[in-house]
Amino acid sequence: MKDCLFCKIAAGEIPAAKVYEDDELLAFKDIAPKAPVHLLIIPKKHLASLAEAAPEDAAWLGRIQVLARRLAEEQGIADGGFRVVANSGADSGQEVAHLHYHLLGGAKLGDIC
Ligand code: AMP
Ligand code: ZN
Question: What is the reported pTM?
Answer without folding.
Answer: 0.98
